[in-house]
Amino acid sequence: NFEGTFNTGAYASWGPTVANRVPVHASGPYFIENYRAKSYAVHTNTPSSGAFRGFGVPQSAIAQETAFDLLADKVGIDRLEFRIRNALQNGLPTATGQIFEKGVGIKECLEAIQPHWARANAEARAFNAKANGSVIRKGVGLGSCWYGCGNTSLPNPSTIRFGIKADGTIVLHQGAMDIGQGSNTVITQIAADGLRVPVHSIKLIDGDTDLTPDCGKTSASRQTFVTGKAAQLAGEALRRQILRKANVSEAASLEFSDGLIKAYEGDTSVEIELTRLEPNAFGYVFMAEETYDPPVKALDEKGQGMPYAVYGYGAQLMELSVDTKLGTIKLDRITTAHDVGKAINPMLVEGQIEGGVAQGIGLALMEDYLPGRTENLHDYLIPTFGDMPEFVNLIIEVEDAEGPYGAKGLGEHVLIPTAPAILNALRDATGVIVAALPATPDKVMAALMAHNEE
Fold first, then answer.
1. Which end of the chain is flanked by fewer CB atoms within 10 Å, N or C?
2. CB 308: neighbour CB atoms within 10 A?
3. Maximum C-alpha span of the chain
4. How far apart are CA 70 and CA 74, in angstroms?
């Protein structure tokens, strides 16, 4: 039973949207037969709240993942094993009654962490056993996540235009806004795979509403999945047009040069002179424009339906040290395992993971907005490079049925498990729970003092 109250401030802004996403996710990536969740966006006299990475799911995951640790301890089952036993799998219904026959990767994420979990626990136990009066205690904690890619039960299409000019230039029009996550790179890679050409041979036109079709907003972890799928469809459609013109089969290979396309099939080759073809209104002799909109269904009055066509999954293991005299927490190492379906660009996957973890650290340990008191980044602390732990990133690929070449979104997922993993590691090290975030040194000390008095 979950109930969440979200302070949306004096104006609604994105508050209702955030509150609407939370009940779908508050079960975590687990099979829970008996489940009820409610959430509220409440108006107050504080500044209005906007959407943030994760849309309320990081907050619900803190409640759910810390509860799972307590439950595992209560029944005497290893905390990781408890999660593996209860993990959602293909063929099992989610909390909304949706059943996926393919692509549910949370169990694979948890199992990938097992050897790291065993090592980390052994090292922490050995250190604490030999503390000999030291004020430092080491702890190990877990957090898991799932996150629906795209808008909740709403249409959110993307359209891609892909064309070839008479001089042989290959041009991709994609309107997905790249805010640093690398969508320009990933979507171009997917389009190149669809057409089966080197990615560097494509000229990209992006971020211009006069020149690019609508690819929707860059939010809800949707661009790799939704716009990427449109790019795949456009690339494949453009290739089919060329193959038909050359009268060759799908098995043929294509070679692009100045004003010429050569198609090779077996011992046969066919040339298409592009300068002899009539350009269309966009100036292309070959062009494909494809749209993809994820198949979703509205939730009924009991919250049953198909809110998302694709979910991404992940698990994180945090190792930390706590100074029991100062209440400070040092993050030593984090092991991440995120199921991305297909890693289109592994370097960008790792960049997203590490950036998301940084924001999760801020949520867990330092970011605190106090209306009327917090005025700038001198008062509102955010993590820096010096606050980061050592990273061990495990990229898990459980192919999805809908995503482009099996890929899933990742952007928001990576923030969700970090704070729960930190809080669970804090309890593992000291026995205390800090329920009101961030877990600043004064709150940790207050919890330690109360725990010692019990």
1. C
2. 29
3. 87
4. 6
Q: Is the pLDDT of residue 51 over 90?
A: no
412 catalytic per annotation: yes
Mean pLDDT of 233-250: 97
pLDDT value, residue 448: 97
Residue 237 to residues 185, 257, 276, 391, 401, Cα–Cα distance (Å):
20, 20, 21, 40, 19
Give the C-alpha separation, 59 to 19, whole Å. Answer: 11
CB–CB of 33/47 below 8 Å? no
With H, G, I as helix, E, B as strand and everything else as coil, classify residue 318: strand
> How far is the first Cα of the chain from the last one, in angstroms, to the nearest whole number?
29
- Under CATH, which number does the domain 158-292 receive? 3.30.365.10
* Closest CA relative to residue 242, chosen from 228, 230, 253: 253
CATH number for region 57-151+300-453: 3.30.365.10
Q: What is the mean predicted confidence (pLDDT) over 222-242? A: 98
Confidence of residue 453 (pLDDT cuts 50, 70, 90): confident
pLDDT of residue 133: 86
CA distances (Å), 352 to each of 160, 190, 249, 355, 375, in order?
A: 24, 18, 39, 5, 29
Residues of each domain in the chain carrying CATH 3.30.365.10: 57-151+300-453, 158-292
